[in-house]
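Ticket #4471: structure output looks truncated?

Reporter: J.K.
Steps to reproduce: submitted the chain below (93 residues) through the standard prediction queue, then opened the result file.
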Amino acid sequence: MRITSTGSGALAPAAGPTPVTAVDSRAPSSSAGAAPAALQSDVMKPALAAMAALPEIDTAKVEALRDALARGDIRFDAARLAGLIERFHGGGR
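Returned output as attached by the reporter:
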């Protein structure tokens, strides 16, 4: 492919900058279905309480299990896990 110049070599300046309007993502939405912040907070309270009640993750145990899986010391049955998940979510009725 060959590119040839047809002009004088000078480039024309681009149009001036276009003004940009800032949008505050913290501003309340104007949609009719938007819930007030207090209501959203009340909806989240049970989930936050449930998360707080969960035990901390034992990272040492997770690493030990990951290593045992990698070495083949313990077996992982993906089909069995898929079946259990399906049964839990009501697919095995």
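Triage note (M.O.): checked the attachment and the full token line is present. The mean pLDDT is 76.
Status: closed, working as intended.
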